[in-house]
């Protein structure tokens, strides 16, 4: 096969490169900056131009080259092209073509245009490697305009009651999507240190975000009522939250579609908002590729593979170390030392 699934990651033998490898390799092509897809230790990295700053912010002084979306890169006779995945800023699907055989490694993706990430582009192929983080029919997302209307209304109500609205969001991706779509005219927006560190990287790329204020020990407690605080998931339930006084805790996550998920996280409000495709999005993306063979990497893999087979696809479950939204939650705690 043109692509092989090895103990180090997805490998292309003719090009001698890996895609999102989870063990150190010589050459790695990276779909996006989340921790389960871009790891430290490779000798050379290749990513999109807009993904590079965050990857370098996370991993340090690595050797990394970039490509534009749609730009073809030939490596040892194999053509690689990066197309938008719509997951987060800079995220990509990687099209691999050699001797008439075409594969697409989708990484993580969503079909809805969130207004800040480069919008998903369907790519024709013979073999499609897909996540299925939310690969059950119960996961069907509302239009994000409805979700952000709910978030803004919640914030306004809390403001009227003199509360601080503390909203949990992953430091990379979800936080910037929320900031881009919030009604910033409601009040001040404060950010956890890990969120603000990522915001600074994004702003330096020329990507506009609303004004935010980093939470520091020097800010008087009286400044917070009526404001919104964008926190990492790991900060909820920690002493860090107590500094804000009377709060209403909200969580923005695809997992909020499950009954009981909000209660288990001790949140007052759950907003169903994910940077991964829902059930309909997964099925639409797969259909649009025209692929005959589907390789499912992470999520509800066995259930989703069986569903695909019932729809007439040749489907396979592949063992990887990708974890979707679970790893994003872990990543959001990076930089927790800057949480005062």
From TrEMBL:
Keywords: Ligase
Keyword Calcium applies: no
Coiled-coil regions listed: none
InterPro entries tied to this protein: MBL, RibonucZ/Hydroxyglut_hydro, Xnuc_lig_assoc
GO molecular function per UniProt: ligase activity; RNA endonuclease activity
SUPFAM superfamilies on file: Metallo-hydrolase/oxidoreductase
PANTHER family linked: BLL1145 PROTEIN (PTHR11203:SF49), CLEAVAGE AND POLYADENYLATION SPECIFICITY FACTOR FAMILY MEMBER (PTHR11203)
Protein name: DNA ligase-associated DEXH box helicase
Organism: Flavilitoribacter nigricans (strain ATCC 23147 / DSM 23189 / NBRC 102662 / NCIMB 1420 / SS-2) (Lewinella nigricans)
């Amino acid at each position: 096969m043109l692509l092989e699934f090895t103990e180090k990651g997805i490998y292309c033998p003719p090009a001698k490169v890996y895609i999102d490898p989870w063990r150190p390799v010589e050459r790695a092509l990276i779909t996006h900056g989340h921790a389960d897809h871009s790891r430290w230790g490779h000798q050379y990295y290749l990513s999109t131009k807009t993904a590079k700053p965050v990857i370098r912010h996370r991993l340090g002084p690595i050797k990394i080259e970039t490509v534009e979306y749609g730009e073809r890169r030939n490596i040892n006779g194999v053509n690689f092209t990066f197309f938008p995945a719509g997951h987060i800023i800079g995220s990509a699907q990687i099209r691999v073509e050699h001797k008439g055989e075409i594969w697409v490694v989708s990484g993580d993706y969503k079909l809805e245009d969130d207004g800040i990430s480069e919008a998903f582009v369907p790519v024709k192929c013979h073999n499609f490697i897909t996540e299925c983080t939310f690969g059950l029919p119960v996961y069907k997302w509302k239009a994000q305009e409805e979700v952000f209307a709910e978030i803004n209304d919640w914030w306004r109500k809390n403001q009227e009651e003199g509360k601080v609205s503390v909203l949990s969001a992953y430091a990379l991706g979800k936080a910037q999507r929320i900031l881009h779509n919030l009604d910033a005219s409601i009040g001040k927006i404060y950010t956890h240190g890990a969120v603000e560190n990522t915001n600074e990287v994004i702003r330096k790329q020329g990507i506009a975000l609303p004004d935010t204020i980093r939470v520091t020990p020097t800010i008087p407690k009286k400044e917070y009522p009526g404001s919104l605080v964008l926190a990492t998931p790991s900060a909820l339930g920690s002493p860090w939250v107590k500094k804000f006084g009377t709060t209403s805790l909200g969580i923005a996550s695809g997992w909020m579609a499950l009954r009981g998920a909000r209660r288990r996280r001790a949140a007052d409000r759950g907003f169903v908002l994910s940077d991964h495709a829902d059930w309909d999005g997964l099925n639409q993306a797969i259909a649009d590729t025209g692929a005959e063979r589907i390789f499912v990497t992470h999520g509800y893999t066995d259930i989703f593979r069986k569903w695909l087979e019932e729809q007439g696809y040749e489907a396979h479950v592949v063992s990887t170390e990708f974890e979707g939204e679970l790893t994003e939650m872990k990543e959001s705690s990076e930089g927790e030392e800057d949480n005062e």
